[in-house]
Amino acid sequence: MEHLKTQGIALPRLGLGTFRMQGDACRAAVESALGLGYRHIDTAEMYGNEEAIGAAIAASRVPRGDLHVTTKVWHENLAPDAIRRAFDASLKKLRLDHVDLYLVHWPSRSMKLPAVFETLMRLKEEGRTRAIGVANFTTALLKTVVEEIKAPIACNQVEYHVMLHQTRVADYLAARSIPLVAYCPLAQGRAASDETLAAIGRKHNASAAQVALKWLLDQDGVAAIPKASRAESQQANLDALKVTLDDADRKAIATLPKNKRCVNPGFAPALD
Ligand SMILES: NC(=O)c1ccc[n+]([C@@H]2O[C@H](COP(=O)([O-])OP(=O)(O)OC[C@H]3O[C@@H](n4cnc5c(N)ncnc54)[C@H](OP(=O)(O)O)[C@@H]3O)[C@@H](O)[C@H]2O)c1
Q1: 190 C-alpha to center of ligand 1: Å?
Q2: Which of 20, 158, 226, 230 lies 20 to 30 Å from 32 when distance is taken between CA atoms?
């Protein structure tokens, strides 16, 4: 598996998303993914599944050093003491002594960014997270974090897929060699039934979902975290790395609508 080197960590370019996976089903899905070779698991305190993921990791024989675990602090917990409490709870549920990446899950209108990053930096200095980062940060917020606060963020995790452009944020990140981690990389499954992608897939003996993933992973500095509960889909998503797309395919993908955002909650500053 290829990695993206960023702020002292090596982020596997394909990870397993786990939003809306819960309990025993989540544990089984993560155990399956680890068995198939996934080494990057994406979770968050808000997903309510860190205990199940902790159990799956504990049951696996994957050495800790080979595994990348990302978790996130929810937007309601961005006061320094609340971050600490949320972080401690996440680590305990995950049964880990450190995570690899700790992200601000969503910006909030009331957050105090310098205090947020001072707290995250302390967690990093204490060795409890190997790196820190953000999710759903606009270009304006990234400028504050990167250029004013100068926080060493290892990624911005944002919605990005064949039906949603992210030109501004992607250009900003690429210019600073900060990885973009694409969430909803399958447009929450919609990509799997898209006829344009299916036609491209037929040329290459691949599925529409695999075409959508490979389009992302062909881009420098981009990682993707598709959620898949079934082992067949997990394996298919790993196999997407072997698909070769050509210029005609990329041209056809460029004709898809690019404004199909799946996630945009009202509590956060507008994303664009
Ligand atoms: N930072 C944030 O604010 C944020 C927001 C949203 C999501 N995320 C992260 O990103 C992850 C991915 O996003 P998402 O779960 O919303 O959507 P997604 O990964 O785009 O799509 C997931 C859907 O695609 C299906 N699927 C997966 N592989 C497939 C394949 N090979 N063929 C056909 N269908 C396939 C899944 O089915 P089954 O599960 O039934 O197999 C599921 O219904 C989340 O799980 C979460 O970890 C982060």
Answers
A1: 10
A2: 158
Global pTM exceeds 0.90: yes
Closest residue CA from atom 36 of ligand 1? 228
Question: Structure tokens of 229?
Answer: 């509960």
In terms of phi and psi (left: phi > 0; alpha: psi -120 to 50; beta: otherwise), the region of 103 is beta
Tell me whether strands 3-6 and 9-12 are parallel, antiparallel or unpaired: antiparallel
- Contact 138/233 with Cβ under 8 angstroms? no
- The 10s digit of each residue's pLDDT in 237-250 is 999 999 999 999 99
To test the pocket of ligand 1, the residue of 42, 73, 157, 186 to mutate (highest count of ligand atoms within 8 Å of its CB) is 186
pLDDT tens-digit map of 125-178: 999 999 999 999 999 999 999 999 999 999 999 999 999 999 999 999 999 999
102 is catalytic: no
> Which tokens go with 55?
């159990």
Counting from 1 in the atom list of ligand 1, the atom nearest the Cα of 186 is 20
Taking Cα atoms as reference points, which of 163, 154, 251, 158 lies closest to residue 200? 251
Nearest CA to ligand 1 atom 14: 184
